[in-house]
Each structure stands twice: as structure tokens, then as C-alpha cells.
Amino acid sequence: MKQILCLQSKTKSIKYMSDYDRLTDIAIRLNQLNIDMKLAQLHVK
To answer: What is the pTM of this model?
Structure first.
């Protein structure tokens, strides 16, 4: 199962395509770090 994680900030957008567990881990870490990016989309492909 693959999914795409889209991160958006005011200056750029980043896309990760990876396994579900890996992307969930990335999202959790970004939230913990309070990075100036918001989780725009987290959906299964």
C-alpha cells in the first residue's frame, strides 16, 4: 500500500511517496518539531 504525503509551506511544497507507516512516522515527527508546514494531504493511493 502506497500513499502520498503533501506538505505545503508559504514558499514550497514537498511530496513524499512511500509506505503508509513511513509517511505516518514522518507526519508525526513534523508535528512534534512544529515545523512551519502543514499537513495538506495524507491519502492512500
So the answer is: 0.32
